[in-house]
Design a protein that fits this description.
Strands 1-2 form a two-stranded antiparallel sheet. The chain is built from 13 helices and 2 strands; from the N terminus they run αααααααβααβαααα. With 326 residues, the protein is mainly α. It starts with a helix and ends in a 23-residue tail after the last helix. Helices cover 44% and strands 2% of the residues. The protein has 2 domains: 132 residues, Peroxidase, domain 1 (Orthogonal Bundle), CATH 1.10.520.10; 124 residues, Orthogonal Bundle (Peroxidase, domain 2), CATH 1.10.420.10.
Length: 326
């Protein structure tokens, strides 16, 4: 009996040691004893940027999503490459904005606590704080303790970032590969309530949906005509608000779901949410703003924990755009 107990204690000890070296879970107030002002510094710096550029919330929210879906939430999307083969150089990421914002926030944190706070955590916190700015309260929890990855490959982006032309099954499989379910898929799609898209992101729905010069029949006809008036064929420069229901590309609210119901979702990935019973029911529920905010907070916390590096894995970068030199 005593031998069995000793063996059990030994196994528990070894497991805990392995967990410490390979990474554990994220936690609240991770920097309490190492950089107690970290989250305050990030918040103040983020709010300063949002005050001068209201488009920052959409930029950072999208960047955080793109970071987490490739190699997990490890800040790899922030890395530069002399050979132009890092994640940020891939097609889906070439329109990402806000790298300068993250670099500035990191520099301010480094002044107070050098080598302590990861770029991955800064991106996760800044995405939350930028969206929260308009509400004067935190819109979701961001446990911290992420460490920064050392690898960033453009070749991994296309296969991991869900494309705007994906159908429901493709979206479902993509999110499932990240540990996210259909409910998370619908909820996180609500991020399209802020931000804009270039015309070429959806022009196939207007001019050549099946390769025969036709229009997507699932798109509201009047809305399609409005889009055509703004986006002539082969236009790659003009931008359109992803959520026409908000009246602004800057307003974070639940109107995205009303837009989807009215068949005015900008992308195929938006309209396809109505082709599945579970997804459609979730869309109808999230029209109610309080429900959307509650569920978005839960799904964002879940997304922010995808394949995180913790413990001794990865590193704490000195500069968010470069791995530390040996």
């Amino acid at each position: 009996m005593k031998l069995n107990v000793l063996m059990l204690l030994f196994v528990v000890l070894i497991s805990s040691l392995l967990g410490a070296s390979q990474g554990g879970s994220l936690s609240e107030y991770f920097y309490k004893h190492t950089c107690g002002e970290a989250e305050t510094i990030v918040k103040k710096a983020t709010e300063k940027h949002v005050a001068s550029n209201p488009a920052v919330p959409a930029q950072l929210l999208r960047m955080h999503f793109h970071d987490c879906f490739v190699r997990g939430c490890d800040g790899s999307v922030l890395l530069n490459s002399k050979k132009k083969n890092a994640e940020k150089d891939a097609g889906p990421n070439q329109s990402l904005l806000g790298f300068d914002v993250i670099d500035d926030i990191k520099a301010q944190v480094e002044k107070k606590c050098p080598g302590v706070v990861s770029c991955a955590d800064i991106l996760a916190l800044a995405a939350r704080d930028s969206v929260s700015y308009a509400f004067k309260k935190s819109m979701w929890e961001v446990p911290t303790g992420r460490r920064d990855g050392k690898v960033s490959r453009s070749s991994e982006v296309q296969q991991n970032i869900p494309a705007p032309f994906f159908n429901f099954n493709q979206l479902k499989q993509n999110f499932a590969s990240k540990g996210l379910n259909v409910h998370d898929l619908v909820v996180l799609s609500g991020g399209h309530t802020i931000g804009v898209s270039h015309c070429n992101g959806f022009s196939n729905r207007l001019y050549n949906f099946t390769g025969k010069g036709d229009q997507d029949p699932s798109l509201d006809k009047k809305y399609a005509q409005q889009l055509k008036s703004k986006c002539p064929p082969r236009d790659r420069k003009t931008t359109v608000a992803m959520d026409p229901g908000s009246g602004s590309a800057l307003k974070f609210d639940s109107s995205y779901y009303d837009v989807v119901i009215k068949k005015k979702g900008l992308f195929t990935s938006d309209s396809t949410l109505l082709t599945n019973n579970v997804a459609r029911n979730t869309v109808q529920k999230l029209v109610h703003q309080n429900d959307f905010f509650t569920e978005f907070a839960l799904s964002m916390k879940k997304m922010g924990a995808i394949q995180v590096l913790t413990g001794t894995a990865g590193e704490i970068r000195k500069k968010c755009w470069a791995v530390n030199s040996n």
